[in-house]
Design a protein that fits this description.
262 residues, Rossmann fold, Hypothetical Protein Ta0175, Chain: A, domain 2, six-stranded parallel beta sheet, 13 strands, 36% helix, globular
Protein backbone atom coordinates (compact mmCIF):
# COMPACT_ATOMS: atom_id res chain seq x y z
CA UNK A 1 0.00 0.00 0.00
CA UNK A 2 1.29 3.42 -0.96
CA UNK A 3 0.77 6.61 1.09
CA UNK A 4 -2.29 8.65 0.12
CA UNK A 5 0.04 11.43 -1.05
CA UNK A 6 1.03 9.18 -3.97
CA UNK A 7 -2.53 9.14 -5.37
CA UNK A 8 -2.54 11.30 -8.48
CA UNK A 9 -5.27 12.72 -10.72
CA UNK A 10 -7.73 13.80 -8.04
CA UNK A 11 -9.16 16.38 -10.46
CA UNK A 12 -10.46 13.47 -12.55
CA UNK A 13 -12.27 11.84 -9.62
CA UNK A 14 -16.04 11.96 -10.12
CA UNK A 15 -17.08 10.35 -6.88
CA UNK A 16 -16.17 8.68 -3.60
CA UNK A 17 -17.56 5.31 -2.53
CA UNK A 18 -16.91 4.21 1.04
CA UNK A 19 -17.62 1.73 3.79
CA UNK A 20 -19.30 3.07 6.94
CA UNK A 21 -18.16 1.17 10.05
CA UNK A 22 -14.63 2.18 11.11
CA UNK A 23 -14.13 3.93 7.76
CA UNK A 24 -16.60 6.80 8.04
CA UNK A 25 -17.31 6.23 11.73
CA UNK A 26 -14.95 6.21 14.71
CA UNK A 27 -15.54 3.80 17.61
CA UNK A 28 -19.11 3.40 16.45
CA UNK A 29 -19.87 7.12 16.19
CA UNK A 30 -20.26 9.45 13.21
CA UNK A 31 -18.10 12.45 14.05
CA UNK A 32 -18.77 16.02 12.96
CA UNK A 33 -15.44 15.96 11.11
CA UNK A 34 -16.37 12.93 9.01
CA UNK A 35 -19.95 14.04 8.33
CA UNK A 36 -18.74 17.52 7.41
CA UNK A 37 -16.22 16.05 4.97
CA UNK A 38 -18.95 13.97 3.34
CA UNK A 39 -21.20 17.03 3.01
CA UNK A 40 -18.36 19.18 1.67
CA UNK A 41 -17.56 16.64 -1.03
CA UNK A 42 -21.23 16.38 -2.02
CA UNK A 43 -21.38 20.15 -2.52
CA UNK A 44 -18.69 19.90 -5.20
CA UNK A 45 -21.05 17.84 -7.36
CA UNK A 46 -19.18 14.58 -6.98
CA UNK A 47 -21.06 11.34 -6.31
CA UNK A 48 -21.05 10.34 -2.63
CA UNK A 49 -22.12 6.73 -2.02
CA UNK A 50 -21.79 4.57 1.12
CA UNK A 51 -21.22 0.86 0.37
CA UNK A 52 -22.00 -0.91 3.61
CA UNK A 53 -22.91 -4.12 5.37
CA UNK A 54 -25.43 -2.24 7.51
CA UNK A 55 -29.13 -3.14 7.33
CA UNK A 56 -32.01 -1.98 5.19
CA UNK A 57 -33.50 -0.04 8.11
CA UNK A 58 -30.35 2.04 8.43
CA UNK A 59 -30.04 2.47 4.68
CA UNK A 60 -33.59 3.85 4.44
CA UNK A 61 -32.52 6.62 6.83
CA UNK A 62 -29.15 7.16 5.14
CA UNK A 63 -30.66 7.55 1.67
CA UNK A 64 -33.24 10.03 2.93
CA UNK A 65 -31.21 12.06 5.43
CA UNK A 66 -27.51 12.01 4.58
CA UNK A 67 -25.76 14.06 1.86
CA UNK A 68 -25.46 11.02 -0.44
CA UNK A 69 -26.57 10.07 -3.94
CA UNK A 70 -27.44 6.45 -3.09
CA UNK A 71 -26.47 3.70 -0.67
CA UNK A 72 -25.60 0.02 -1.22
CA UNK A 73 -26.51 -2.05 1.84
CA UNK A 74 -26.30 -5.50 3.42
CA UNK A 75 -23.09 -6.21 1.50
CA UNK A 76 -24.68 -5.81 -1.91
CA UNK A 77 -28.22 -7.11 -1.37
CA UNK A 78 -29.76 -3.83 -2.57
CA UNK A 79 -29.32 -0.18 -3.33
CA UNK A 80 -31.60 2.65 -2.21
CA UNK A 81 -31.76 6.21 -3.48
CA UNK A 82 -34.00 9.12 -2.60
CA UNK A 83 -35.64 11.30 -5.25
CA UNK A 84 -35.85 14.61 -3.40
CA UNK A 85 -37.92 16.29 -6.11
CA UNK A 86 -40.58 13.58 -5.99
CA UNK A 87 -40.19 12.90 -2.26
CA UNK A 88 -39.81 9.18 -2.98
CA UNK A 89 -37.38 6.51 -1.79
CA UNK A 90 -36.49 4.00 -4.51
CA UNK A 91 -35.41 0.47 -3.55
CA UNK A 92 -33.74 -2.05 -5.84
CA UNK A 93 -33.11 -5.55 -4.44
CA UNK A 94 -30.96 -8.33 -5.84
CA UNK A 95 -33.66 -10.89 -5.06
CA UNK A 96 -37.51 -10.75 -5.11
CA UNK A 97 -39.61 -10.30 -1.95
CA UNK A 98 -40.82 -13.91 -1.69
CA UNK A 99 -37.31 -15.33 -1.97
CA UNK A 100 -35.98 -12.99 0.71
CA UNK A 101 -38.80 -13.97 3.08
CA UNK A 102 -38.12 -17.68 2.59
CA UNK A 103 -34.41 -17.25 3.20
CA UNK A 104 -34.89 -15.30 6.44
CA UNK A 105 -36.45 -18.37 8.06
CA UNK A 106 -33.44 -20.49 7.09
CA UNK A 107 -31.02 -17.89 8.44
CA UNK A 108 -32.59 -18.14 11.90
CA UNK A 109 -31.63 -21.81 12.24
CA UNK A 110 -28.08 -21.09 11.07
CA UNK A 111 -27.80 -18.28 13.62
CA UNK A 112 -28.81 -20.58 16.48
CA UNK A 113 -26.08 -23.06 15.58
CA UNK A 114 -23.38 -20.38 15.38
CA UNK A 115 -24.32 -18.86 18.74
CA UNK A 116 -24.07 -22.32 20.33
CA UNK A 117 -20.71 -23.17 18.76
CA UNK A 118 -18.89 -19.85 19.11
CA UNK A 119 -19.25 -18.67 22.73
CA UNK A 120 -19.27 -14.94 23.35
CA UNK A 121 -20.99 -14.04 20.09
CA UNK A 122 -24.47 -12.59 19.64
CA UNK A 123 -26.86 -11.59 16.93
CA UNK A 124 -25.97 -8.09 15.78
CA UNK A 125 -28.10 -5.47 17.48
CA UNK A 126 -29.29 -4.30 14.06
CA UNK A 127 -30.43 -7.78 12.94
CA UNK A 128 -34.09 -6.82 13.36
CA UNK A 129 -33.68 -4.22 10.61
CA UNK A 130 -32.09 -6.60 8.10
CA UNK A 131 -33.94 -8.00 5.09
CA UNK A 132 -31.43 -10.36 3.49
CA UNK A 133 -28.52 -11.36 5.67
CA UNK A 134 -27.42 -12.71 9.02
CA UNK A 135 -25.05 -10.57 11.09
CA UNK A 136 -23.15 -12.10 14.01
CA UNK A 137 -21.51 -9.66 16.39
CA UNK A 138 -17.98 -10.50 17.52
CA UNK A 139 -16.84 -7.10 18.81
CA UNK A 140 -19.46 -4.34 18.54
CA UNK A 141 -21.81 -4.88 21.50
CA UNK A 142 -20.06 -7.94 22.93
CA UNK A 143 -16.59 -8.09 24.51
CA UNK A 144 -14.18 -8.20 21.58
CA UNK A 145 -13.27 -11.69 20.38
CA UNK A 146 -10.11 -12.50 18.39
CA UNK A 147 -10.22 -12.63 14.60
CA UNK A 148 -9.94 -16.40 14.85
CA UNK A 149 -13.49 -16.40 16.29
CA UNK A 150 -14.71 -14.32 13.36
CA UNK A 151 -13.10 -16.75 10.95
CA UNK A 152 -14.80 -19.67 12.75
CA UNK A 153 -18.17 -17.94 12.36
CA UNK A 154 -17.48 -17.42 8.66
CA UNK A 155 -16.54 -21.09 8.26
CA UNK A 156 -19.80 -22.21 9.90
CA UNK A 157 -21.76 -19.93 7.60
CA UNK A 158 -20.06 -21.37 4.53
CA UNK A 159 -20.74 -24.92 5.75
CA UNK A 160 -24.43 -23.95 5.83
CA UNK A 161 -24.32 -22.71 2.23
CA UNK A 162 -23.94 -18.99 2.87
CA UNK A 163 -21.57 -16.48 1.38
CA UNK A 164 -19.70 -15.10 4.41
CA UNK A 165 -17.67 -11.93 4.90
CA UNK A 166 -15.86 -10.55 7.94
CA UNK A 167 -16.22 -6.84 8.66
CA UNK A 168 -14.61 -4.83 11.43
CA UNK A 169 -17.47 -5.62 13.83
CA UNK A 170 -19.67 -8.41 12.40
CA UNK A 171 -19.53 -11.54 10.31
CA UNK A 172 -22.23 -11.33 7.64
CA UNK A 173 -23.72 -14.29 5.80
CA UNK A 174 -26.27 -14.52 3.00
CA UNK A 175 -27.61 -16.81 0.32
CA UNK A 176 -26.34 -15.93 -3.15
CA UNK A 177 -23.11 -14.90 -4.81
CA UNK A 178 -23.56 -11.12 -4.88
CA UNK A 179 -21.26 -8.78 -2.98
CA UNK A 180 -20.59 -5.07 -2.53
CA UNK A 181 -18.95 -4.79 -5.94
CA UNK A 182 -21.62 -6.53 -8.00
CA UNK A 183 -24.43 -4.33 -6.65
CA UNK A 184 -22.27 -1.23 -6.98
CA UNK A 185 -21.84 -2.00 -10.67
CA UNK A 186 -25.61 -2.52 -11.01
CA UNK A 187 -26.27 0.80 -9.28
CA UNK A 188 -23.93 2.68 -11.58
CA UNK A 189 -25.39 1.09 -14.71
CA UNK A 190 -29.05 1.55 -13.75
CA UNK A 191 -28.99 4.83 -11.84
CA UNK A 192 -26.10 6.76 -13.36
CA UNK A 193 -25.75 5.18 -16.82
CA UNK A 194 -22.09 4.50 -16.10
CA UNK A 195 -20.04 1.39 -16.88
CA UNK A 196 -17.65 1.09 -13.93
CA UNK A 197 -15.39 -1.30 -15.82
CA UNK A 198 -14.79 1.45 -18.39
CA UNK A 199 -14.60 4.35 -15.90
CA UNK A 200 -12.85 2.67 -12.97
CA UNK A 201 -10.22 5.40 -12.58
CA UNK A 202 -12.84 8.11 -12.15
CA UNK A 203 -13.90 6.84 -8.72
CA UNK A 204 -12.25 6.24 -5.35
CA UNK A 205 -13.29 3.58 -2.87
CA UNK A 206 -12.37 3.75 0.83
CA UNK A 207 -12.68 0.89 3.33
CA UNK A 208 -11.12 -0.83 6.30
CA UNK A 209 -11.86 -4.57 6.49
CA UNK A 210 -11.95 -7.96 4.70
CA UNK A 211 -15.48 -7.53 3.32
CA UNK A 212 -14.14 -4.58 1.32
CA UNK A 213 -11.63 -6.79 -0.51
CA UNK A 214 -13.62 -7.05 -3.80
CA UNK A 215 -13.75 -3.25 -3.93
CA UNK A 216 -10.06 -2.91 -3.08
CA UNK A 217 -9.18 -5.33 -5.87
CA UNK A 218 -11.39 -3.69 -8.48
CA UNK A 219 -10.75 0.02 -8.01
CA UNK A 220 -7.48 1.46 -9.29
CA UNK A 221 -7.87 4.16 -6.63
CA UNK A 222 -8.81 2.12 -3.58
CA UNK A 223 -7.85 3.55 -0.20
CA UNK A 224 -7.65 1.98 3.24
CA UNK A 225 -7.96 4.11 6.35
CA UNK A 226 -5.00 3.48 8.65
CA UNK A 227 -6.80 1.05 10.98
CA UNK A 228 -6.89 -1.49 8.15
CA UNK A 229 -3.52 -2.54 9.55
CA UNK A 230 -5.53 -4.63 12.04
CA UNK A 231 -6.49 -6.99 9.21
CA UNK A 232 -3.17 -7.34 7.41
CA UNK A 233 -2.75 -11.02 6.65
CA UNK A 234 -6.53 -11.48 6.54
CA UNK A 235 -7.25 -9.52 3.33
CA UNK A 236 -7.88 -11.29 0.03
CA UNK A 237 -6.93 -7.99 -1.61
CA UNK A 238 -5.41 -4.91 -0.01
CA UNK A 239 -6.11 -1.30 -1.00
CA UNK A 240 -3.66 0.51 -3.26
CA UNK A 241 -3.28 3.51 -0.93
CA UNK A 242 -3.53 4.16 2.81
CA UNK A 243 -4.27 7.24 4.93
CA UNK A 244 -2.16 8.38 7.86
CA UNK A 245 -5.14 8.70 10.19
CA UNK A 246 -7.64 6.07 11.31
CA UNK A 247 -11.40 5.66 10.84
CA UNK A 248 -13.43 8.86 10.40
CA UNK A 249 -10.34 11.03 10.69
CA UNK A 250 -8.80 9.03 7.85
CA UNK A 251 -11.97 9.53 5.80
CA UNK A 252 -11.76 13.29 6.39
CA UNK A 253 -8.07 13.18 5.44
CA UNK A 254 -8.97 11.49 2.15
CA UNK A 255 -11.70 14.01 1.32
CA UNK A 256 -9.39 16.94 2.14
CA UNK A 257 -6.75 15.45 -0.15
CA UNK A 258 -9.21 15.00 -3.03
CA UNK A 259 -10.45 18.57 -2.70
CA UNK A 260 -6.96 20.06 -2.37
CA UNK A 261 -5.64 18.17 -5.39
CA UNK A 262 -8.63 18.98 -7.63
Amino acid sequence: MRPLAKLRGASQVRGLLFDIDDTLTTAGRLTAEAYGAMEQLKRTGRLVIPITGRPAGWCDHIARMWPVDAVVGENGAFYFWHDAAAGKLHKRYHEPDAQRAQQRARLQAIAERILREVPGTALASDQTYRETDLAIDFCEDVPALPLEAAERIAALMREAGLTAKVSSIHVNGWFGSYDKLSMTKTLFTERFGTDLDATNGAFVFAGDSPNDAPMFAFFERSVGVANIARFMGHLASAPKYITQRESGAGFAELVAYLLAES
